[in-house]
Design goal:
876 residues; 8-stranded mixed β-sheet
Length: 876
């Protein structure tokens, strides 16, 4: 999908950097307004590196902050902090408080400033989620065993969802025949100044956008011989309408609904929550609300996203959420189905749904795969959230799709009947493999997340879905492997309670190209399982690799990125992440040069960034200006406000189906406020043996604790390296070979140590052995008459044309002698016609009269001299 998807990333990133008012003005149209007859949910969005808002969508509620304060911060201090960024204090709920700014305020900037304040745990915009949907199709096939999830067999065996309630947080559910009285409550949550940032109240059944009704129909449409049948046709629906007038879904409204589900006893019968919505930014507010639902014993299922790439979408990307990708009628993976984190897949392309007005429609999107899995969870008896998730994954049909890339299908195509049967007493134990850790990264800490960093651990769960396993079978331990090769010693299972046992591997650094991590009990008594992974290299994610390396890597980094697009390992290399430590006040300038391929860009992230795939609010500079220009050369510029390690993320923007993206060069400088003790004594030299500026020379002073290295470079090639402080020089050679005339760069690097602060300054050096070429000497008027000063011929002007930037000197001699009376000189003048005037006086001020001789000299910066013959001049 990256052919279509990468082209708008720059627009998305520009929106992420724009003031809130600017982003909002461009996003006035509702995201689903004017939908054609074939409805669209999370439309397949052009942006494989969608690091912010896509054109036409609001990223957050304008003028609204959600702030978490640390314990002990009182009301007065909270209000003062909010006012310091221009926000009016709003309602508070525990440590969280709403702040209201003007509609045109830069919400992201205000959040960043607040987040850096002592006493503030986090601050973020009220992010907006969008609905999952896209394209055309026919037929109602998603329930059968040949193409769909085998729900027909579960229904025939008597599992139809009776007694289970499914919460649908969406755009509301209309009163339609297919659902009848099984919609037991309808509530609407709107953004306001309530403690949670939004409040919910009972509402009627009218809906402006059919998406929520379509989603609910896939869960619980009646099995009545007419229309469609839901996966759990006897389950009930509790509906929360959380979209706003523009078709977006503010995180605050979604979180308000989730909190009601978690805490209100009226929702005790809710077994599973469906979230057919998503966005690329992670949200603390959203994750806290989802954790509350999971802790209340209710499962959460969400759509994986429709960007068709490996970037995680939220809320599907959070730990504990079952993320669902989409399949096609022929069991392929839908091209739009994202796989940044996908646990299982279900039908999501050309799926028939019921619509408001009791009609039918054919829809596409992971929006519609998610409720199918939510319905499957509703088919079984109430169990723990962990067991439900593992049972869905463990009974999915791995390899059932024609994905070509295992990572796109997760554990496989869900099987409703196998899930129900696994819950029955007497079922055999089975193993489920998932990724885990490190905790610092919100992507890779997610159980069943697939973006594995170096140092990632892997989990093996052994269980019976009915919860009756009393001890792990066999030896009670598990082994782990990558693509069949053992990667860690055997690990013992620990009892998590509820009949679930877990073993965790040691930290594993996966080789790039790894596709599956497997886990099994040692003696095979309960089988094995594997999870597809995308192995990230060290420079794919935070903290990246040091920007300052050894040798030439000390001042520039060369990289090759491969957009791939065929779903194979090459597709994994589309990011290089570098870390550079900046002290407060340091200024970073980096230049990104594309050597080949259709496109690269770069973004600079603030200290504390753990995930360049989702923390777009931490971007403080973008290489392209505007980002859509994709110029061959782009620059990053920042003066650091706070000390810390900043991340430079270089990413590919090219064709999904074209050749490799090619190479790039990243060069950089960092300077401090006081500067570095480097003086260039001779910046232009002419090693031609005339003993004038034969070497370029500079002096490197000492900085306490820093090591110093000088580099003379030509383009991306180092000509000379010289360590330590002191007097330095260069004679224009490299390895004894004379280098061509031209401009070179002196780079002086001061380093404290690996990963610590480094300062790098650049200075131009000019190598020039040729003297200037001159022509068209002239002096006028000649003679001239300084006395009396009547404005007529009081001065004369010497002129000459020079082939290069140079100084012009005029030497005036006593006629017939070599006695020098006056030297008239200029500073460096541009190439071309050069002039200097003279009033006929000596340097001491004596007015000369009579016949004299002059000579003109042209001297370039390297000291090369061209001088004319001697010519006469008269002063009257």
């Amino acid at each position: 999908m990256r052919t279509r998807l990468r082209s708008l990333f720059a627009v998305a990133l520009l929106a992420a950097l724009l003031p809130a008012g600017a982003a909002t003005a461009r996003s006035a149209a509702p995201s689903l307004a004017g939908a054609p007859a074939v409805s669209t949910g999370q439309a397949a969005r052009p942006a494989a590196h969608t690091r912010g808002q896509v054109a036409g969508r609001r990223a957050f509620v304008p003028g609204r902050l959600l702030v978490g304060f640390r314990p002990g911060i009182g009301t007065a201090r909270r209000s003062a902090l909010l006012r310091s960024v221009g926000a009016r204090p709003g309602a508070a709920n525990g440590q969280m408080q709403v702040g209201t700014l003007s509609q045109a305020a830069d919400v992201r900037a205000a959040a960043k400033r607040l987040a850096a304040e002592p006493g503030v745990a986090w601050a973020e915009p009220d992010w907006i989620r969008h609905l999952d949907a896209c394209g055309p199709g026919v037929d109602c096939w998603h329930l059968d065993a040949t193409h769909g999830v085998n729900a027909d067999a579960a229904h025939a065996a008597g599992s139809r969802g009776s007694g289970s309630a499914v919460a649908v947080i969406d755009t509301g559910v209309a009163n339609i025949t297919e659902l009848g009285a099984r919609v037991t409550s309808r509530r609407a949550c709107v953004v306001d100044n309530s403690p949670a940032g939004a409040s919910c109240q009972a509402t009627g059944s009218s809906v402006a956008i059919p998406h929520g009704t379509e989603v609910a129909s896939l869960v619980a449409a009646a099995d009545d011989g007419a229309g469609i049948t839901g996966v759990a046709p006897e389950a009930t629906i509790r509906a929360w309408k959380v979209d706003d007038a523009d078709g977006g879904i503010p995180v605050s409204a979604e979180a308000a609904a989730l909190q009601e589900i978690a805490t209100n006893p009226a929702n005790a019968d809710v077994k599973v929550v469906n979230l057919s919505l998503g966005g690329p930014q992670s949200s603390t507010v959203e994750q806290n609300a989802i954790n509350a639902v999971l802790n209340a014993g209710k499962s959460v299922v969400a759509s994986s996203g429709n960007d068709g790439n490996y970037l995680p979408q939220y809320p599907a990307g959070y730990p504990g959420v079952v993320s669902v990708g989409a399949t096609t009628f022929d069991r392929g993976i839908a091209a739009f189905s994202s796989y940044g984190k996908v646990d299982v897949v279900a039908p999501g392309q050309d799926v028939t749904v019921a619509t408001p007005g009791n009609g039918l429609d054919v829809v596409n999107g992971t929006s519609f795969a998610s409720p199918i899995v939510a319905g499957i969870v509703a088919l079984g008896p109430t169990g723990s959230v962990l067991r439900n998730r593992l049972a869905v994954e463990g009974t999915a049909d791995a390899g059932a799709t024609s994905a070509g890339d295992d990572k796109r299908e997760g554990h496989g195509l869900t099987d409703a009947n196998a899930y129900v049967q696994s819950l029955a007493g007497g079922a055999s134990p089975f193993v489920v493999a998932e990724t885990s850790g490190p905790v610092a990264n919100p992507v890779t800490s997610a159980a069943s997340g697939q973006l594995a960093n170096p140092g990632t651990t892997f989990d093996a769960y052994v269980l019976k879905s009915d919860g009756t396993l009393s001890a792990p079978p066999g030896s009670g331990s598990a082994s782990f492997s990558v693509d069949g090769t053992p990667v860690a010693p055997t690990r013992a299972f620990t009892n998590l309670g509820g009949g679930v046992f877990k073993a965790t591997s040691g930290a594993v650094t996966l080789a790039r190209g790894a596709t599956r991590v497997g886990a099994a009990t040692l003696d095979g008594a309960s089988g094995s399982d594997s999870v597809p992974v995308r192995a990230l290299r060290a420079d794919d994610q935070a903290p990246g690799v040091p920007l300052v390396g050894a040798g030439d890597d000390a001042w520039n980094r060369f990289g090759v990125l491969d957009g791939g697009g065929d779903g194979q390992a090459a597709d994994d290399n589309v990011d290089d992440v570098y870390g550079v430590y900046l002290a407060a006040g340091d200024t970073l300038d980096a230049t990104l040069v594309r050597r080949s391929g259709p496109g690269f860009d770069a973004a600079l992230y603030t200290p504390g960034t753990t995930d360049v795939f989702s923390q777009f609010g931490r971007v403080v500079a973008c290489a392209s200006s505007p980002p859509s220009s994709f110029c061959p050369t782009s620059t990053l510029h920042l003066q650091a406000r706070v000390a810390g390690t900043y991340l430079i993320d270089v990413y590919a923007l090219g064709s999904d189906f074209g050749p490799t993206e090619g190479g790039y060069r990243l060069t950089w400088t960092v300077r401090n406020v006081s500067g570095v003790p480097v003086s260039v004594r001779v910046g232009a030299c002419s090693p031609n043996g005339d003993h004038v500026q034969d070497v370029c020379a500079w002096t490197v002073g000492s900085l306490s604790g820093y090591a110093a290295t000088s580099f003379v470079t030509s383009g991306f090639t180092t000509i000379l390296t010289s360590a330590n402080p002191g007097a330095k020089s260069w004679n224009g050679t490299a390895g004894g070979v004379a280098q061509p005339d031209g401009t070179y760069t002196l780079r002086v690097l001061y380093t404290l140590g690996p990963g610590q602060r480094s300062l790098l300054r650049t200075f131009p050096l000019l190598l020039d052995r040729a003297r200037p070429r001159v022509a068209n000497l002239a002096v006028a008027p000649n003679p001239f008459e300084p006395v009396p000063r009547d404005g007529d011929r009081d001065t004369t002007t010497f002129a000459i044309s020079s082939s290069e930037r140079s100084r012009l000197r005029v030497l005036v001699y006593k006629y017939g002698t070599t006695t020098l009376l006056r030297t008239v000189t200029t500073g460096l003048l541009p190439a071309g016609r050069q002039r200097v005037s003279w009033n006929g006086r000596t340097l001491a001020g004596t007015q000369l009269r009579g016949r004299f001789v002059f000579q003109m000299q042209v001297v370039d910066p390297a000291g090369n001299l061209y001088q004319t013959g001697r010519y006469g001049i008269r002063i009257l």
